[in-house]
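Input chain follows. Return structure tokens only.
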Amino acid sequence: MMTRRAAVLVLAVLAAGPAGRAVAAEMSFASAPLVIVTATGRHRFRVEVAKTPAQMEQGLMFRRRLAPDSGMLFEFDAPTVARMWMHNTLIPLDMLFVDGSGRIVNIAANATPMSDAVIAAAAPVRAVVELPGGTAARLDAKPGDRVLSPFFGNLRQP
């Protein structure tokens, strides 16, 4: 089962000290549009996309801020019970666990920065969307709401 941040990377970055964190922060991610459809409407985001194991391990670690209309999409090759954590993540995040059809399975709201507690999907998912903490409540997002993305094939990339 793939985890977002492997212990090996964490130990390597910590051992490298500030220089290791600077290198980790420089990893580049492609971006893509993403729309979350809730009872309050269609909400547009531009998210960074984590596809490779290294990108998934890095995630949003060491970020000091995240724009309200941005986030990260973790794309899994096959359905998996995704397990996330907030180690070295400096800001609170909302995590939306999304199945292969683009439906939200469960939401972990305002995950605690720097926590090693495991945050897991309630069922197998194909993706996890991370957004600034409080976004899910602001959008009134609930399990069953839709996430539109080129990854799910339900949103065309401009």
